[in-house]
Amino acid sequence: xxxxxxxxxxxxxxxxxxxxxxxxxxxREAAYAMLSDDFTFSSPLDNKIDKKAYFERCxxxxxxxxxxxxxxxxGEGDEVFVTYSCAQSDGTRFRNTEFFRTEAGRLTQVEVYFxxxxxxxxxxAELRALLAEVSAATRAKDAAAIVARYxxxxxxxxxxxxxxxxxxxxxxxxxQEWLVSWRGPIEFEMRDLVISVSxxxxxxxxxxxxxxxxxxxxxxxxxxxxTTGFGKRDGEWVVTHLHxxxxxxxxxxxxxxxxxxxxxxx
Length: 266
What we know:
- By secondary structure, the chain is of the alpha+beta class.
- It has 2 domains: 2-117, Nuclear Transport Factor 2, Chain: A; 120-265, Nuclear Transport Factor 2, Chain: A (Roll), CATH 3.10.450.
- Helix content is 30%, strand content 46%.
- The protein contains 7 helices and 12 strands.
- It has helices at residues 2-24, 28-34, 51-57, 119-139, 143-146, 168-179, 261-265, and strands at residues 35-43, 46-50, 65-76, 79-88, 93-103, 106-114, 150-157, 165-166, 182-198, 201-214, 219-233, 236-245.
- The strands form 2 sheets. Strands 2-1-6-5-4-3 form a 6-stranded mixed β-sheet. A 6-stranded mixed β-sheet has the order 8-7-12-11-10-9.
- A hairpin with a 2-residue loop joins β11 (219-233) and β12 (236-245).
- It is elongated and about 80 Å long.
- It starts with a helix and ends with a helix.
């Protein structure tokens, strides 16, 4: 009996280690095959979501990991605890413990317990990942991907007319017009990003930068101020509000589009 228990433990721990290898390799197809049809995933941010929701909501977060290390594995029969540490592409680090159940060579249940992170920290990581997706879509000139996580009724205050407009379709249309006005690649970054989370609402502010060459040959190298509002819809963060602005010169009444953060904070 003891030998059988030990053998089951070894099989379970080997399965978990293999799953983490697959996860870190971003092999979605292999990972999908390792989860049972009745698989559930829980964390401080998720309550027993199913296999489909896990791959839609949680799997993409692994795209932003730059380093991953298993620190400890402890198993007993079909149950395994794993503690690991990670580094994200933005330089932040976190440490979690996960509890697994296995059956017939597949994972049936995962429960995640945040370590040094609080639930708010975890949600901030989700929001940073969302903004990283938007930034990547901007550099890729993909208007549809930019608004993929925007609500249908998102409200936008832009740096160009009108004073305000509403709707993800309109944001996408205006983004597409802007994107095709560039010749070659676009440089885009968000600096000094600060995120505040409260319940199912969140805001962030940053200094955003774009540089490149327009189709008319003109060079652009511009910074502006950006604030983004978020809300939780069906357990997922989405963008509900956009606000971009630049200061203006009181004497000339013209927008100050040549300011740079280095000059502002020295």
